[in-house]
Amino acid sequence: MDAKTQATVDRWLERCDDPDLRHELDELVAGDEEQLSDAFYRSLSFGTAGLRGVLGVGTNRMNRYVVAQATQGLATYLNAHYDKPSVAIARDSRNHGEEFQTVAAEVLAANGVKVYVYPRIEPVPLLSFTVRHLHASAGIALTASHNPAKYNGYKAYDENGCQIANDAADEISAAIGATDIFDGVRSMPFDEAVDKGLVVWTGDDVIDAYLDAVQLQSQPGCDNPDFKVVYTPLNGTGMECVSKILKRIDVTNVTVVPEQAEPNGDFPTCPYPNPEIREALELGLRLCDKVHPDLMLATDPDADRMGTAIPHEGSYQLLTGNEMGILLIDWLCQMKRAAGEDLTRKVCVSTIVSSDAPDALSAEYGFEMRRVLTGFKYIGGQIDLLKDAGEEDRFLLGYEESYGYLVGTHVRDKDAVVASMLACQMASWYAARGLDLVEAMEAIYQRIGYYANGVVNSFFEGESGSERMAQIMSGLRANPPAEIGGYAVEGVTDYAEEVEMPCVGGLQKDGVQHLPSSNVLEYRLAEGNKVIVRPSGTEPKVKAYIFSKAKTREETEAIQAKLGAAAKELLS
C-alpha cells in the first residue's frame, strides 16, 4: 500500500465513528491488505452518472460519509447558481438507501437548501418528473439501477429532470473534491430540518400527476380488458406505479411474481437484478408456465429499465433491448401515420451503441433519427433542445439498447412505467391482428434485413483492474486493428475527439451538433458490420458492442459469433 493510501486509512481510523463501518474497517486492517487498499486507494468518481460503488467503508465505497461529502459538493454548487435552491430526493429498494436519503437531506438542509423527500421507495423516472413538477433546482436518486446487491449509487439531476452532465458535473465534482470528507460537511438533524420546513414530505398528488402524464401516451384503440400479464418488479420500486398505470388502461388481469413482489435490497432470488438477463426472470417464466399470460413484464430495481418475455410457439422468448426499441418505433409510426400525423416532423433518439435498424425505419417512415453518446441524459438533452425550439411535440421516442425507453416528454430519463403500458398496448394491438411480438419483429426483419447486436464484457476488479482497463483503451488507440474477425476495418472513429452527431432522415433543421468527448472507439467493418469498445461508466469492465447485418438470421448470427470471439481477444 502506498503512503498516500495509508495516510487515508489512518485518518479514517481516527475519525470514523459509525459503529458498523468502524467494525468493517478494523477487520480490513487486520485482514487482507489488497482489499483494504482497494477500499481507499481512490475516491469514488463523481461523473455524469453521479456515484456508484460497492457498499462499505472507504473513500472508494458507498457509505454515509461519501454520500455526505457528495451532497455538500452539490449544495455548494446549487448555492452558487440559485437564490433559493431546492432538491427532490427519491430512493429505490437497495440496502442503506433510507440512511443515505436521510444523510443527503440533513446536509442539504444545513446548507439552506429546501428538500422534497418521498416517504417510501419510488422509481427513478418519478424522481425525474418530480424535479420538473415541483420546479426544484436539482434531484437526487439513491440507486444502483440493475447492479448486484452489493452496490448502491447516487444519481444527480438538473432542474430539467435530466442527469447532470458535462460542465455542471465537472463543477460539482470539483466542489466535492474541495470538501473534506469529515470536517467540510455541514449537517443538521433530520427532525430539526422537518420542523424548520427545510425538509418536506412529497405527497401522493405528485405521483398521481406523474401517472396522468404517463397515461397521456396511451394509444387509442389498444385497450383489451382480457389481456393477461405476469409482472415482476425484481424486489424493486416498480410495483406501485406499474400496477396503477396498467389498471388505468384496463389491464387488470395481472399476476405478480410473489417472491419478487416486496422490496428487498438483498435481491435473494437473483444475484443480478437485471431484466436483460434470463436468470433474473426465471421465477417469472416458471409462473408463466402456470398462468399462461399474453405478456411477461419485468422492471429493474429503480424501474427505469423494462424487459419482456413473449409467448411464442409453446415457450417464452425474451426480446432484446434493441428489438423492443425497434418494435416500439415501428408501431408508434404506424399509429401516428394512421392518426394523420406528419412523420417527417418526428424525431427519434438512440445511442451510438444501439442497433442501426432504426436508420432503416427512418428511411421507410421519414422521421429524423439522432444518435448520442451512451447515457439517457444525452437523450434527455435532445428533448430539451426541441423544447427550446418550441418543438417538443416532435419527440417520438428515445431508447437505449440496455432496455431503457421513453415515450413522452414528462421526464428526461428512461421510464419503465410508460414502457410497460405501451408494451401491453402494442402486444394487444398485434394480437388483434393475429401476431405475437416475436412474429411482429420477424416481419420487420424481413422488410429491412436482419440486424443483430451483442456485447462482450471483460471485467477488471480493483486498482490493478482500473489500470488494465486504461491500458486496453490506450493500446487500441496506439495500435488500431486492421481487421476484426476476418472483416477489414474500413473506418475508425475515436469519440475522444469532437465528433459530429450522427443523424439521418427527417427535417434535420436544428443544424450540426457535436458529441461531447468520450472514451469510446468505433470500428466500421466490411459488409456493414461494426464493433464499438468503451469502458463501462458504472461497473469495472470494458465492453465491446458487436453489430452485424445480413439477409438471413443465420448469416447475421454467424457474423456475431466471429466478431464476438475476436472482440474477446481485443479485450484480453
Name the descriptors.
Alpha-D-Glucose-1,6-Bisphosphate, Chain A, domain 3; 572 residues; 3 domains; single chain
Describe what you observe in this structure.
Helices cover 40% and strands 21% of the residues. The chain has three domains: 42-209, 3-Layer(aba) Sandwich (Alpha-D-Glucose-1,6-Bisphosphate, Chain A, domain 3), CATH 3.40.120; 225-316, Alpha-D-Glucose-1,6-Bisphosphate, subunit A, domain 3 (Alpha-D-Glucose-1,6-Bisphosphate, Chain A, domain 3), CATH 3.40.120; 322-414 and 449-570, no CATH class. Strand 7, helix 10 (238-248) and strand 8 (253-256) form a beta-alpha-beta unit. The radius of gyration is 24 Å and the shape is globular. It has a six-stranded mixed β-sheet with strand order 1-5-4-2-3-6, sandwiched between helices. Strands 16-24-23-22-18-17 form a six-stranded antiparallel β-sheet. The chain is α/β, with parallel strands linked by helices. It contains 18 helices and 24 strands.
Strand coverage percent: 15-25%
Terminus-to-terminus distance: 26 Å
Q: Residue ranges: pLDDT <50 for 5 or more in a row?
A: none
Task: Work out the radius of gyration.
Answer: 24 Å
Helix content: 40-55%
Overall domain count: 3
